[in-house]
Amino acid sequence: MKTNKLCIMRLSKYKSALYRLKSLGFVRIFSDNLADAVEVTSSQVRKDFSIFDISGNKRGGYKIDELIEKINTILGKDELQKVVIIGVGKLGSALMHYPGFEKEGIKIVAAFDIDALKFKHKEKTPVLPLEELPEFVRKNNIKIGIITVPATSAQQVVEIMLSAGIKGVLNFAPIQLRGNDDCQINNVNLEVELENLIYFVNVLIKTKGK
Amino acid sequence: MKTNKLCIMRLSKYKSALYRLKSLGFVRIFSDNLADAVEVTSSQVRKDFSIFDISGNKRGGYKIDELIEKINTILGKDELQKVVIIGVGKLGSALMHYPGFEKEGIKIVAAFDIDALKFKHKEKTPVLPLEELPEFVRKNNIKIGIITVPATSAQQVVEIMLSAGIKGVLNFAPIQLRGNDDCQINNVNLEVELENLIYFVNVLIKTKGK
DNA sequence: TTACTTTTGTGATAATATTCACAATATATA
DNA sequence: TATATATTGTGAATATTATCACAAAAGTAA
Are residues A27 and A68 both part of a single domain? Predict the structure, then answer.
């Protein structure tokens, strides 16, 4: 079985498209339909599925419900995923209440900061002092954390998370953080995303000009 | 010259690392140092540079200032980039004031929404009614827009943006939007990012268990 | 100046990812 | 039931991307 990051990303996207197709009343779909929805080829879809031994019916396509369930199992979404956020600035607060997470069985259970003005011990999703992170992580068996602190404190926060036993980090601080054998770090860099878009828009405009 | 999205992403990352290295007092760097900072191989760095005819000195490495300037030129960052945001929810507001953009010569010049309660005509970064978008885009020569509306209205918003003449869209709505020859659409899907992390954390935990 | 060392720049090579193309087969139709 | 048709599943072929490895150049030291 040969997996890679892009392939897993596509699985997520297939699933998201499947929910949509389901809500439109579809019960079965073909690799063609999914391919359209996610902008890949149909053989890509089938190849991805074959990697995970997902099979459909020749001529009958795939049953959406089964497909969603299988993909969820592969993605490890059988149980509720508890996640913490470190850094309660504007972006952190936005992600704290991001509706897309809850919908996907992902629950932000607490946030942490160093600014006492931000602490909210009694809220449904509390904001706690950063020094309480290790205890909280251990007590609640948290594996995943989101970093939304400034670049300058990101490395420091990672160390704290690592020693608290966090296994996965989604980092929004605009600095490339390094994982290790015990902890996977994925970086989402908003500037980089926007710069990338700007580049391709410029290319587009230039080639159109010709 | 053979470019691709990942290569451009890396250019952005190199630049960001270069700023950091510069602030630490470095004046010149080697492909090795950059490779470390961005977690790629040094030949990857040199290959990326050679694609864009960026050259250094054998044995002397690259001058940081020149490198930053060249990368900025490639990325089309010679002039201030004016960007609009559509959708002033929590995420939209967070991005409106995201400090990383301004630092990179990217300026959010206005935001748009359909909720009259959110309108702020007199702020430095105004929040305007969505129907004013086309006029605003034309008058201010806006090329780039960020979508932070719910998935259900994203497609509709894209149509408006396309007909207003927007050339590039960074879409945060959790639905894959399709660009065309006149408009590049890049999708950033936060659920997908988090699901991806969850998958790899599970893999990590399983393989560790062995 | 000469020998030695370090680092670039890049063609050749290897690894990875995607698409092609078609046999196998399930369903629909007559 | 027999025939036609649509769709999967996958090995082979292709395309893309990254790494290797080393000659050439530039700095350093003697």
Answer: yes
Average pLDDT over residues A18-25: 96
Mean pLDDT of A117-146: 98
CA-CA distance, B149 to B134, in Å (whole number)?
Answer: 17
Distance separating alpha carbons of residues A95 and A144, to the nearest angstrom: 14
Minimal Cβ distance to B75: which of A12, A167, A198: A198
Task: State the pLDDT at residue B6.
Answer: 95
CA distance B36 to B33: 5
Kindly state whether residues A68 and A125 are assigned to the same domain: no
Range of the domain at A36: 5-74
User: How confident is the model at residue A4, as a pLDDT?
Assistant: 86
- Whether residues B134 and B155 share a domain: the answer is yes
Are B35 and B104 part of one and the same domain? no
User: Which pair of structure tokens corresponds to residue B156?
Assistant: 């509709």
If you measure CA to CA, which chain B residue comes closest to A13? B192
How far, in Å, is the CA of B58 from the C1' of nucleotide D24? Answer: 9
Q: Is A75 on the interface with B (CB under 8 A)?
A: yes
Nucleotide nearest to B42 (CA to C1'): D19
Interatomic distance A168 CA / C19 C1' (Å): 34
Total domain count, chain B = 2
pLDDT, tens digit (0-9, with 9 covering 90-100), for B37-86? 999 999 999 999 999 999 999 999 999 999 999 999 999 988 899 999 99
